[in-house]
Amino acid sequence: MKQFCAVCILMILTHDLAGFSFRATALRCNLCVSKGLGNPCTPSVQTCLPHVTNCGYIKLKPGLMGPPFIRSCISMATCWNYKFSEAVEAKCCKTDLCN
């Protein structure tokens, strides 16, 4: 049977709790969904869920309908998936209303 490293577990828990205490309030991001063709969206502010730690700006590459875009809360994993897509321009940030 393997022994658990109590110090390792404590360090991991401390690191996770430090992340929670660092941000006392939830992240706020711009929320806006454009349909393209020059149709602007009505911007608003979205309060992110605790596990969603980034604001994102996702823009589809120009096509027949023009480049639609989305500004919203986004997880880092989802952002990275978009960053590696050739059909999308993705930018993510971690401060209030940075998108």
From TrEMBL:
InterPro entries: Snake_toxin-like_sf (IPR045860), Toxin/TOLIP (IPR035076). Residues 27-99 form the Snake toxin/toxin-like domain. The keyword Signal applies. SUPFAM superfamilies: Snake toxin-like (SSF57302). It holds the Pfam family Toxin_TOLIP. The keyword Signal applies. Keywords: Signal. It comes from the Eukaryota. Residues 1-19 form the signal peptide. This is Snake toxin/toxin-like domain-containing protein. The lineage of its organism: Eukaryota, Metazoa, Chordata, Craniata, Vertebrata.
